[in-house]
Amino acid sequence: MLSQECYKKIDRELAKYPADQRQSAVMASLAHAQVELGWLSPDTMQEVADYIGMPAIAVQEVATFYNMYNIKPVGQHKITVCTNLPCALSGGERAAKRIKDALGIGFRDTTADGKFTLMEGECMGACGDAPVMLVNNHQMCSFMSDEKIDALLEELNK
Length: 158
Ligand code: FES
Known about the structure:
Keywords: 2Fe-2S, Iron, Iron-sulfur, Metal-binding. InterPro entries: NuoE-like, NuoE_dom, NuoE_N, Thioredoxin-like_sf. Its cofactor is [2Fe-2S] cluster. It holds the Pfam family 2Fe-2S_thioredx. The chain has 7 helices and 5 strands, in the order ααααβααββββα. The chain is about 45% helix and about 15% strand. The chain folds into 2 domains: about 5-65, Orthogonal Bundle (Arc Repressor Mutant, subunit A), CATH 1.10.10; about 75-155, Glutaredoxin. The structure holds FE2/S2 (inorganic) cluster (FES). FE2/S2 (inorganic) cluster binds near residues 82, 123 and 126. FE2/S2 (inorganic) cluster binds near residues 84 and 126.
């Protein structure tokens, strides 16, 4: 169940579009719901669909298409490593292995303590900064050497 505060944020998104185009606010609405609840359960997607006035299946289509939406529960920190070709050729695979080894998990896994989830991501538009990773969908980390990865994990583990 979304909070009134979250509904206020969704209302602000809806206000950006004509009344007969409420579905245009679905992506932002899902993002607010995810920030509040951590992930988008089927019930949450249904709630957003009901509020916006669009079919639940259409909301699910959006949520499952974009990989920044969490359609399963994730850990406290979600680390998404870009493994697309430019990053892969510039250390992305090595960076991913470093994190896998450090956390003892693979892609789409969460550590037993619920602290970290590791995801494989698509190009983040920063290929020149490879290897690139994103923390919790907001913090872009560039030129991720082994040393920088170790420092990042230590910082997030505090
Ligand atoms: S391929 Fe990794 S940011 Fe573009």
